[in-house]
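#lab-general

N.A. 3:47 PM
ok so I finally got the sequence cleaned up, no stray characters, all 255 residues accounted for. can someone with queue access submit it? mine expired

B.Y. 3:52 PM
send it over

N.A. 3:53 PM
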Amino acid sequence: MTTADTRRLRLLSANIQAGSSTRRYSDYVTRSWSHALPAGNKRGSLDAIAQMAAEHDIVGLQEADPGSLRSGFTNQTHYLAEQGGFDYWSHQPNRNVGGVASSANGLLSRLEPVEVSDHSLPGRISGRGVLLARFGRGDEGLVVAVAHLSLGANSRRAQLGFIAELLEDHPHAVLMGDFNCVPDRPEMDLLYSRTHLRPPAFCVPTFPSWGPKRAIDHILLSEPLKSVDARTIPAAFSDHLALALSIDVPQTALR
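B.Y. 4:20 PM
back already:
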């Protein structure tokens, strides 16, 4: 229950697939052009995503195009911030395929961050990162991290170890994103054993969006933070469902 000492924040994590439409496995082949060309109704998908995002206070994005050919050279994180009415936004470009297709983590916020930093993640193939925002000063402040992890378990283990070092001293932490694995994989224990983060209380399949079978998108919270109203939301024809939940944060963690 929210009290005078806490503030309720509505969180959203969404892999938006750069606004491309995927409604079945065959679309990965028949609509592969949409991952390299600006054609298709990407702007319509972005407008729908912006409408969904606008109902939240802090939004973590994965696979947002930072301005390559396939997005019509539109920075999608900036576009969503403007359309969703967010005063603060940041993005972390991670992968650029010849200027044709780029990918970024993104952050939309109604709260002004004290600091935003981005970090490249280790892995067999480069192009993954974690975007970290601080909303309070000192180790007690709220820290929100957005990440998109690798498909391979060995790379994920290295990446999760790196993220654990970033978050280990922060008792009020949130890690959201596309983990590409279920929360009880052995490599996930690096987070649970080295940080204040705990396995998700809300764990449902998010991929593929048209028939979810795998729980690979998560919003992890440190132990002092409690979640309410957890749910999945279709992310405007992305191949992932979005995750939403609310948390009660001590006011002292936001100062």
